[in-house]
Specification:
This protein is an alpha/beta fold. It has a ten-stranded mixed sheet with strand order 3-2-1-4-5-10-9-6-7-8, with helices on both faces.
């Protein structure tokens, strides 16, 4: 049995924003919304003891009731689980289509946009994880200026972009009516000196290499354009830092989609790459981390 869309909530403003985002996505997908509060802190334990057992804390109940009232057609459930937040949320995510978290919950450090629970869960969950922060540039993770859907930005790498990552990005763009922007960073400035039979400007060669890379990226998207003809796509090749290009692209995005490679062996420790961690800490939009082989 699938849990549908799962959102982790702890009563913080970040988790409230995550719950709103998750509710919209559950409605779009025709799925139920399962709210999970993992009572892994001493404050939670004390509140359970004073409150008589299994009731969720009042701030969590407020978020639950607000979401249910705003989305009367949505099947909403709320569950209290004891344990470690990152471990339990990742475990629940194994049976979910999508796991949504606030980027930083109660007790997080103000200087970090993504807390340790969010990072650890995104590295371990078997389903896509979306991290949402409250008031991201005033967009709330949904629309851009004037109510127009923000772009769906997907980071791609290599000659064969990952199918799981592109599938997630194209589906979300199709569901929301957004433009999909495939962003890749690759340095085509090196490779000289160049030897030719006739004098050729190195700048012309670099421009030709960049044009060839742009064409390669367009070709890599061809199959997905055929599957989602309604989605307008743009392919962008950027020089320099991949993290910098993706963070810049997130300014006009409703969602930024990244991939996370899963370990081939069970002994391999799940982790996020340096680019993904940097983007998670600095992105201006919600970020989806999609696991893939």
């Amino acid at each position: 049995m699938s849990y549908g869309v799962v959102v982790g909530i702890d009563g913080s403003a970040q988790s409230a924003a995550a719950a709103q985002w998750a509710a919209r996505e559950a409605l779009r997908r025709g799925l139920g919304l399962r709210m999970v509060h993992v009572a892994g802190t001493e404050a939670d334990a004390l509140e359970r003891e004073l409150g008589g057992g299994s009731a969720v804390p009042e701030p969590v109940a407020v978020i639950r009731d607000r979401i249910a009232a705003a989305s009367p057609g949505l099947d909403v459930s709320c569950e209290l689980r004891p344990g470690s937040p990152a471990d339990d949320l990742a475990a629940v995510g194994r049976r979910a289509e999508l796991l949504v978290l606030g980027s930083r919950g109660l007790g997080g450090f103000a200087g970090l946009l993504v807390g340790s629970v969010g990072l650890r869960t995104a590295a371990r969950a078997g389903c896509p994880v979306v991290l949402v922060r409250a008031g991201a540039d005033g967009q709330g993770g949904t629309d851009g200026p004037g109510g127009v859907p923000g772009d769906v930005v997907v980071g791609v790498e290599g000659d064969r972009p990952c199918d799981a990552v592109l599938a997630f990005a194209f589906r979300h763009a199709a569901d929301t009516g957004a433009v999909l922007r495939a962003v890749e960073s690759r340095d085509v400035s090196h490779g000289g000196p160049y030897t030719t039979e006739a004098p050729v400007c190195e700048r012309d060669i670099r421009d030709s290499l960049a044009a060839a890379e742009q064409l390669r990226l367009q070709d890599a998207l061809g199959r997905w354009r055929e599957k989602y003809p309604e989605v307008r796509t743009e392919a962008e090749l950027h020089p320099g830092s991949p993290a910098g290009a993706l963070v810049a692209a997130s300014r006009s995005a409703s969602l930024l989609v990244l991939g996370r490679r899963t370990p081939k062996h069970t002994l391999g420790a799940p982790r996020l790459g340096a680019v993904t961690q940097s983007v998670l800490h600095h992105a201006h939009s919600p970020v989806a981390v999609v696991p893939h082989a």
